[in-house]
Specification:
CATH class: Alpha Beta
Strand content: 5-15%
CATH architecture: Alpha-Beta Barrel
Shape: globular
Number of helices: 12
Helix content: 40-55%
Radius of gyration: 17 Å
Structural class: alpha/beta
CATH superfamily: Aldolase class I
Length: 241
């Protein structure tokens, strides 16, 4: 919940041309539902992808206020699932996230699946336990042929919107030893190595390059910095180097 339709349209108009000129990085914009149509129209003729911030797992039914995969795929190629705010404020669990991931697979949407520990879990030394479990439970049942298309985003809850980013070294350790390990358990080594793992949590134009230097950090799920066109373009340029 960040921009009105008019604000989202203006933001994409400003950043679109510069982003389209960065050819060796996959770029995806994920605005609120009400802005999807407006942004989709602006992205025509560019190489920018479009994603929703969430969706329901059922195709249809009496789920007032929810948005189905069929509605999402009309405009989007991607969908964010299991964001920490959905888990924290709306009671989403690994089980419900898994239902949504399977629905994305069914409808050919690329899920960006978020996992990450809370501050209490981090301070208790439970990062590996929590993140490994979330990865296994959220992604179970995925067809191995589809698995290489999914995107996993490690976003430690204590780093989101706080300005307190994880260190690149810590994020790399979690990506390599926990997330990638869970993916190997699920899909085997070859497929696990092909799955992109993003880092999310207070990524800025100032620190992005340090994260991208790490071998197992394949990109970023950018939050607040994506609302500033010049910052998001700078982060994208850092990813291209």
């Amino acid at each position: 919940m960040n921009k009105t339709v008019a604000e989202a349209r203006d933001l994409v108009s400003v950043m679109g041309r510069d982003l389209n000129n960065i050819k060796n990085v996959e770029k995806v914009l994920c605005p609120p539902y009400i802005s999807l149509v407006a942004v989709a129209n602006l992205l025509g003729g560019t190489d920018l992808g479009l994603g929703a911030q969430n969706m329901h797992w059922e195709d249809k039914g009496a789920f007032t206020g929810e948005v189905s995969p069929i509605m999402v795929k009309e405009f989007c190629q991607y969908v964010i699932l299991g964001h920490s705010e959905r888990r924290t404020y709306f009671g989403e669990t690994d089980a419900t996230v898994n239902k949504k991931v399977l629905a994305a697979q069914k409808h050919g949407l690329i899920p960006i699946v978020c996992i990450g520990e809370t501050l209490a879990e981090y301070e208790a030394g439970k990062t590996a336990e929590i993140v490994h479990r979330q990865a296994l439970e959220s992604l179970k049942g995925i067809d191995p042929a589809f698995a290489s298309k999914i995107v996993v985003a490690y976003e430690p809850v204590w780093a989101i919107g706080t300005g307190r980013a994880s260190s690149p070294e810590n994020a790399e350790t979690v990506h390599r030893d926990v997330v990638r390990s869970a993916l190997k358990d699920l899909f085997g080594t070859e497929t696990a190595l092909s799955i992109r793992i993003l880092y999310g949590g207070s990524v800025t134009a100032a620190n992005a390059a340090d994260f991208f230097k790490e071998i197992d950090i394949d990109g970023a799920l950018v939050g607040g910095a994506s609302l500033k066109a010049e910052d998001f373009v700078a982060i994208t340029r850092a990813a291209s180097k």
